[in-house]
Amino acid sequence: MTRDDRRSILLEGETTALPDFLMARMGSGTTYFALAVIRHLERLGTHVVNNAHAIEAVKDKLYSQQLLAASNLPVPKTMLVKFPMSAALVEKQLSFPVVVKTLSGSQGAGVYLCENRANFEDVMQLIEATNANANVILQEFITDSYGRDLRVIVVGGRPIACMQRKANDGTFKANFSRGGSVEPYPITPVIAWLASEAARVVNLDVAGVDLLFDGNAFRICEINSSPGFEGMEKAHPEMNMAEEIFRYIRVRLGFWEEALAQA
Ligand SMILES: Nc1ncnc2c1ncn2[C@@H]1O[C@H](COP(=O)(O)OP(=O)(O)O)[C@@H](O)[C@H]1O
Ligand SMILES: [Mg+2]
What we know:
Elements: E1 8-11, E2 14-17, E3 21-22, H1 32-43, E4 47-48, H2 52-59, H3 61-70, E5 78-80, H4 87-93, E6 98-102, E7 111-114, H5 117-130, E8 136-140, E9 148-155, E10 158-166, E11 181-184, H6 189-202, E12 206-214, E13 217-224, H7 230-235, H8 241-252, H9 256-261
Parallel strand pairs: 3-4
Antiparallel strand pairs: 1-2, 5-8, 6-7, 6-8, 9-10, 9-12, 10-11, 12-13
Bound molecules: adenosine-5'-diphosphate and magnesium ion.
């Protein structure tokens, strides 16, 4: 990382030419080191999809909810835990059942549904005893969405595919990676608008936006910077996600005639 040469980087000790573009696929697992590398290449002028700032913003589920709420987009009511946590306050603000989430996580692993106050107090005690500095958020449970949600893929501001995900094991979590089933779902104007706005607000070029069903409307559950391809291609066998993203990258690199001719 010197100023000697702005067209190359040191990779495992070897001077290596800068790549034409960088697509980071680490999602919520993006470490400080990875963010620093992405930022560095960004500053050297490499095209990045997605940019480091956007990846960092959506890695933090509270921060991304704050950005969405500040733009008046519909999100579930969310609180940050400070121990000791008053169950009465949670009951008043969010009511039970309530969703407990780790600040950062994916594939449903850090997400738990507390059915009632006693259950909530037990879980809070367990977390506090394990790590009183743990960053945990509490979220209003969107009942209509129990065990099902929508995943929308947005590429370059455009929602390109939508699927409904359904849990198969009776749980409230609809993640495909947890064994959920998938089916194509139409991109209605409301879904298109919510998904593209969500991606725009956090400044992601490629985004997987999760929408919760709420009556005839939706709430934005979370936004992913590195959405999986497998579930979406299962729901839409005609679709090649990697090709869609690559076409967008080619447009960004200036090869738009060639890229759009294949669209
Ligand atoms: N507030 C909520 N109300 C209802 N269901 C929820 C809520 N939050 C999450 N879920 C369900 O749990 C799943 C996982 O939650 P999510 O926040 O997307 O975590 P992850 O990053 O692990 O995918 C969602 O896809 C959805 O099915
Ligand atoms: Mg999710």
